Automatic annotation (TrEMBL):
InterPro entries: DNA_brk_join_enz, Integrase-like_cat_sf, Integrase_catalytic, Integrase_DNA-bd_sf, Integrase_DNA_bind_dom, Integrase_recombinase_N, Phage_int_M, Phage_Integrase. Pfam families: Arm-DNA-bind_3, Phage_int_M, Phage_integrase. Belongs to the 'phage' integrase family. This is Prophage CP4-57 integrase. GO terms for molecular function: DNA binding. Keywords: DNA integration, DNA recombination, DNA-binding. CDD domains: INT_P4_C. Residues 209-381 form the Tyr recombinase domain. One of its GO terms (biological process) is DNA recombination. The lineage of its organism: Bacteria, Pseudomonadati, Pseudomonadota, Alphaproteobacteria, Rhodobacterales.
Length: 400
């Protein structure tokens, strides 16, 4: 048996440049600058392997002392006695340690950060991440992302797969994006795990329900009841008159309105997010009247500010309708308007869809269509205002 522990600290300190054996395959390579490097020579499966054990430091503060180097050497010699290549085993252990650092939660957060630019308000509302945060991460957040498989996903989403189907689908979608992001990072993940989990979960029994909308015949009575001149009442009136979603209403700025045209930035329009084209809204006389009433309440150029700072929240108008014990919600007035267009006017589908900022037709068709039907929409929205304010309940013919 080869002699062990042949070196002493004093010898090492006085060594010239060169390589010195401590026995058992442990060597020290002394450098000209006085520093040194430990390495271990072993034979495994008929091959000689040489692995570094770190730099030499007599105090063990910035490297391995003689005592520590001997401990490291014995650790890896024991691996050799087990018939394993010490270098490959160390690499395996390093991969395992790295894998533990990339949990599902850490990768999901990175994926969310990378995706923020594509989300409304840069994801500030938190809706993108919420399904993961509430239903997935509490169970799987600390699991290495490389270990996630379809059974893990199935077991996690099964409790809400039928009862909260929309949320479960969103969580599954976010997981799919997270796994693809992990694959792009070079991690060994199964990017098909979500599809496999979906197959295991089966078809959902949940029936998707549309947002309740007020019948268009009842809108005038409700509109008339919004008579207090508060920010909430005025915002709801403008929402009904323009048939827009709540975001452009809430973030309406006075400098966006010129004459009887309101130019809504594309970033505030769901269908136009990420596009360069803003959306022009023709304002009826009634809509202009609502804006004039709201101007004294404006703050920081926002027409509908909140009591504290910023603008009114997405839930402000909904809460008001809920307090009145109505089943309808603000977004439903878009359906009220669209049904009115279909049942009480002869407006074309193209103009009606354009009024709601819906993207219609193929890419080629849209490329050749160079109009937003502003003038036709101007007539349409004036007739809608007439209906809403109770001035006309007759069939509305549109001038072409």
């Amino acid at each position: 048996m080869r002699a062990l522990n042949k070196l002493t600290n004093i010898q090492i300190k006085n060594f010239a440049t060169g390589k010195y054996s401590d026995g058992g395959g442990l060597w020290l390579h002394k450098r000209p600058d006085g520093g040194g490097q430990w390495f271990l020579r072993v034979s495994i499966h008929g091959r000689r392997r040489e692995m570094g054990l770190g730099r030499y430091d007599s105090k063990g503060e910035f490297g391995a002392s003689l005592k520590e180097a001997r401990e490291y050497a014995e650790k890896w010699r024991s691996i050799v006695r087990q018939g394993k290549d010490p270098i490959k085993e160390r690499e395996r252990q390093q991969r395992e340690a790295a894998k533990a650092d990339y949990t599902l939660e850490t990768v999901a957060e990175e994926a969310f950060e990378a995706r923020k630019a594509e989300l409304r308000d840069d994801g500030k509302a938190g809706r993108w991440f919420t399904p993961l945060k509430l239903y997935v991460l509490p169970k799987l957040g600390q699991v290495p992302v490389e270990d996630i498989d379809q059974r893990d996903i199935r077991n996690t989403l099964a409790p809400i797969w039928h009862e909260k189907a929309d949320t479960a689908q969103k969580a599954l979608n976010r997981l799919r994006i997270t796994l693809r992001y992990a694959a792009a990072m070079g991690l060994d993940v199964d990017i098909q795990a979500t599809e496999k989990a979906k197959a295991l979960l089966g078809k959902t029994r949940h029936v998707i329900q549309n947002i309740p909308s007020m019948p268009w015949q009842e809108v005038p009575t409700f509109y008339d009841s919004l008579d207090k001149g508060t920010i909430t009442h005025l915002a709801l009136r403008l929402l009904i008159l323009t048939s827009l979603r709540s975001k452009p209403i809430r973030f309406c700025r006075l400098d966006e309105i010129e004459g009887d045209v309101w130019t809504v930035p594309a970033d505030n329009m769901k269908a136009l997010k990420g596009h360069e084209t803003d959306f022009r809204v023709p304002l009826s006389n009634e809509a202009l009247s609502v804006i004039e009433r709201a101007k004294p309440l404006a703050r920081d150029d926002y027409l509908f500010p909140s009591q504290r700072r910023g603008v009114i929240s997405d839930a402000t108008m909904s809460r008001m309708m809920k307090r009145r014990e109505l089943e309808f919600r603000p977004h439903g007035f878009r359906s009220s308007f669209r049904t009115w267009c279909a049942e009480a006017t002869d407006v074309t589908d193209q103009v009606a869809e354009a009024a709601m900022a819906h993207v219609t037709g193929s890419k080629v068709e849209r490329a050749y269509r160079r109009t937003d039907f502003l003038e036709q929409r101007r007539v349409l929205m004036e007739r809608w205002a007439d209906h809403v304010t109770g001035k006309s309940g007759e069939f509305a013919r549109m001038v072409r």
